[in-house]
Structure formats: structure tokens, C-alpha cells
Amino acid sequence: MDIHSLKTDEAKAEEGIKVPLSKDCWIQVRRKGCGTFQKCYERNQKPYAIQIRKKQLDDETASRILWESVAEGLIVGWDGFKEDGKPLKFSVENAKRFLCDDSFAELRDIVLDAAGDLDSFRAEVVEDGEKN
Prior knowledge:
This protein is of the alpha+beta class.
């Protein structure tokens, strides 16, 4: 196995990939561990640094920090979602509203699965002067 086949395309990791959910609906997601997500997660954890260090952060707050960070740092956009029959435009606030709601576990799974699909974020390997 060529070690370069495991290289991440950093631009793609930060720009995200569009994941089709249906014929008319998609969500664009960055790679897990990307710099944007890391910065959001660190910023959102900062007010709770003492509780985190002392392992005193309650589960509800820890979950909110995670899902708000996912909304801010992993989701780039979406199109085709509707709410009550009306188009639901992407905004970080809308993403937070649904990701922080435990009843939207399927949406959470879609985002995390896409962000963790490392093959989708791999750089193209060049062999013998040609792209694969």
C-alpha cells in the first residue's frame, strides 16, 4: 500500500463534501478533526475549562458543547430541507437547533458518518505521472 494513499486533501477537508440525502436534498460537511471544527470546539469548551479539568462538567453541557461545535465547525451548508412545508435555509443557528435536539439523532449520525468517511477526503495519488 502506498503511504500517500492515506494523505488527506486539506482543502477538501476544510471546504467539505456534499452528501446527497435525496434527489433534491444535500448537506455539506467538513472532515472530522479539521481545523475549523477544532477551533470551534476549543472556543466552546473554554468557559468550562475548570469543570472539564476537574471532570465536573455535566453530561447535558458536554453534549451541548459538542453539538454546537459540530453545527459551527463541521456543517458548511445544506439545501432541500423543509420545515412545516417551507424551505429551511441553512444557518448555524438552525443547525444548532436541530443537532442539540436529541430527537434528531439520525441527522447527527448523517453528519458524523459523512465527516468520518475518510476516503471522501483523501488526496489523489499520482503514480507514473497520472492521477488515479
